Amino acid sequence: MTAQILDGKTLAQRLKGQLQTWLAEVSPQVGRPPGLAVIWVGDNPASAAYVGQKQKSCAQVGITSFGGQFPAHTSQGELAHLIQQFNQDERVDGILVQLPLPADLDSTKLLHTITPDKDVDGLHLVNLGKLLRGEPGLQSCTPAGVMRLLGHYQIPLAGKQAVVVGRSILVGKPLGLLLLASDATVTFAHSRTPDLAGLTRQADILISAVGRQGLITPQMVKPGAVVVDVGINRTPAGLVGDVDFVGVQAVASYLTPVPGGVGAMTVAQLLLNTVQSYGQRHELVMPQ
Ligand code: NDP
């Protein structure tokens, strides 16, 4: 068996094309394009790459970028004030704080300063609560992007065993909840899970969101499983995921590459979330 590639890059490009076409039509009617404010503190090189990708993608589809890079010594109060300004700024539909923040800043407190209807990263308690209740709201970009990718390839989820390795509030937990809402039977695994391989071998849908190169070997994958690699690991040879791509490709039925899988969908979902917020503000319905 050779797994079919879940091609996030191509789907993300298509979604961006659709957004660009739609925004070219509606932005002149509304009188302004959508706006996304990205707040990036310090000089973490990985954050620089992510913010650059996000701003470039915004420009491609017709979303105006606000915000910028702030020095590592910027205080909690200054950042909270900046977020309040963006909360009130009519040109801004989405506010994103690029994580991780320098260790002396309280990121949770800052994220809760963002007004929930501009919280395009879906990390405010209100949006997390809506996710838990199964109500519509802004959903975290990586989990929502993964669900969109699985949906595009019409991967059946109802009644399937899904194992999510990783339980962060950014990826693992919300993704598990979304899979549950799609009627999968979900198990979370984490650093304290004994016999990880025994668990992952039962998974019809296996998600790895850990950040450890080579964590998922072919022996840990059930033949025919759908494997989604969220992990991003920087190596001298470039970016790799958590999954032994070549080995697992011979066992799985579907597999996401790194890069070109989940990362591309995360950026596309951020644009979609920003436009969803813009649409709601102007009572426009974006075609699906
Ligand atoms: P975190 O570090 O917050 O969480 C990692 C999770 O992995 C934790 O729940 C941890 O368990 C678990 N874990 C660590 N070691 C093991 C192990 N040996 N076996 C099983 N579980 C383990 O990371 P994030 O959730 O923020 O990100 C996860 C990965 O996804 C990273 O590589 C990150 O770069 C990538 N990422 C990719 C994105 C994309 O767009 N493709 C977007 C966001 C993240 P415990 O809770 O017990 O500590």
Automatic annotation (TrEMBL):
What pathway does the UniProt record associate with this protein?
One-carbon metabolism; tetrahydrofolate interconversion
Residue ranges occupied by any Tetrahydrofolate dehydrogenase/cyclohydrolase NAD(P)-binding domain in the UniProt entry: 140-280
* One GO term of the biological process aspect: L-histidine biosynthetic process
Enumerate the residues binding NADP(+).
Answer: 166-168, 232
Please write the reaction equations for the catalytic activity of this protein.
Answer: (6R)-5,10-methylene-5,6,7,8-tetrahydrofolate + NADP(+) = (6R)-5,10-methenyltetrahydrofolate + NADPH; (6R)-5,10-methenyltetrahydrofolate + H2O = (6R)-10-formyltetrahydrofolate + H(+)
Which Enzyme Commission number(s) are on file for it? Answer: 1.5.1.5, 3.5.4.9
- Xref: InterPro entries: Aminoacid_DH-like_N_sf (IPR046346), NAD(P)-bd_dom_sf (IPR036291), THF_DH/CycHdrlase (IPR000672), THF_DH/CycHdrlase_cat_dom (IPR020630), THF_DH/CycHdrlase_NAD-bd_dom (IPR020631)
PANTHER family the record matches: C-1-TETRAHYDROFOLATE SYNTHASE, CYTOPLASMIC (PTHR48099:SF5), C-1-TETRAHYDROFOLATE SYNTHASE, CYTOPLASMIC-RELATED (PTHR48099)
Q: Which domain of life is it from?
A: Bacteria
- Gene Ontology, cellular component aspect: cytosol
Keywords of the record: Amino-acid biosynthesis, Histidine biosynthesis, Hydrolase, Methionine biosynthesis, Multifunctional enzyme, NADP, One-carbon metabolism, Oxidoreductase, Purine biosynthesis
Gene field: folD
Per the UniProt entry, what species is this protein from, by scientific name?
Gloeomargarita lithophora Alchichica-D10
Supply the CDD domains for this chain.
Answer: NAD_bind_m-THF_DH_Cyclohyd
The terms under GO molecular function for this entry are: methenyltetrahydrofolate cyclohydrolase activity; methylenetetrahydrofolate dehydrogenase (NADP+) activity
Q: What is this protein called?
A: Bifunctional protein FolD
Q: What role does this protein play?
A: Catalyzes the oxidation of 5,10-methylenetetrahydrofolate to 5,10-methenyltetrahydrofolate and then the hydrolysis of 5,10-methenyltetrahydrofolate to 10-formyltetrahydrofolate.
Q: Which family does it belong to?
A: Belongs to the tetrahydrofolate dehydrogenase/cyclohydrolase family.
- On whether Electron transport is a keyword of this UniProt record, the answer is no
- A Pfam family this chain is assigned to: THF_DHG_CYH_C
- Return the NCBIfam families for the record: PRK14186.1 (NF010783)
Q: How does it assemble?
A: Homodimer.
